[in-house]
Design a protein that fits this description.
The protein is of the alpha/beta class. The protein is built from 8 helices and 10 strands.
Length: 256
């Protein structure tokens, strides 16, 4: 059962929306102001946050910035809720780190569509450096938890992500000049898809030769072991490079 943190200071709005979400099968925990929302995001580890923007204390924009700045909560998707439908409000919410935006009074079917999409996808762009790996792995762990993936499969996927990200860190950009790496995760009907996109120099890891594991490590040529692990732990792999998109490596793990 996905857990939603509802941050809303208006008691009537809070109770009404929480009841409707519970009837749809969600577990709902609630906070009444921005500071409590930030604290509960860390304490409760929700699958998604519904953030009212007009809150006492710190407002929803600042609360979202703090949630997204914390490595323990930055992978949690946040939907901004506001009574204003101005384009500037949407832009401000997205700039603060919100993943989606919706207006009040809530149109429940529309909101549920956005919740469903965010619970089944994750999109994170960070510098292609080893220090970013913690956030990427947290995003994968959160998606697997929401999807009900077994601990064994989740552990395999963490190894896959580690190897794939290390490949980009080592090969995509010149030493000391890291660019961006975009990690897109999707929970498909019966699979988890991991896609890495970067704008670095072309490098197809799938073209690396499979190492001869019968050789000792002293005799084995460098390279190829990481992609060998990825091939062993995923069911489908594809790579493409275009001038517009750069390098795109997609890896799919079947859950059936």
């Amino acid at each position: 059962m996905p857990k939603i943190l509802l941050v809303e200071d208006n008691e009537m709005n809070r109770e009404m929306l929480s009841r409707r979400l519970v009837r749809k099968g969600f577990e709902v925990v609630m906070a009444v102001d921005g500071l409590q929302g930030v604290a509960m995001a860390r304490q409760e580890q929700p699958d998604l946050v519904l953030m009212d923007m007009s809150l006492p204390g710190i407002d929803g924009w600042e609360a979202t910035r703090r949630i997204k700045a914390d490595v323990a909560t930055q992978a949690v998707p946040v939907i901004a809720l506001t009574a204003h439908a101005m384009s500037g409000d949407r832009a401000e919410a997205l700039a603060a780190g919100c993943d989606e935006f919706d207006t009040k009074p809530v149109d429940l079917p529309r909101l549920l569509d956005k919740i469903d999409r965010l619970l089944t996808t994750s999109d994170t762009t960070l510098p292609a450096v080893a220090a970013s790996l913690h956030a990427w792995k947290a995003a994968l762990d959160a998606l697997c938890r929401r999807a009900g993936v077994s601990d064994a499969v989740r552990a395999d996927l963490q190894v896959v992500l580690d190897e794939a990200c290390a490949n980009v860190v080592k090969h995509a950009y010149p030493p000391g000049q890291p660019g961006a790496l975009r990690l897109t995760l999707r929970h498909l009907p019966a699979a988890i898809e991991i896609t890495l996109t970067d704008q670095g120099r072309p490098f197809n890891p799938l073209a690396q030769p499979t190492p001869d594991l019968s050789l000792s490590w002293e005799d084995r040529p460098l390279g190829g072991l990481g992609i060998h692990l990825i091939r062993q732990m995923t069911d489908h792999q594809s790579y493409r490079h275009t001038d517009a998109e750069g390098n795109r490596l997609s890896l799919v793990k079947d859950l059936t």
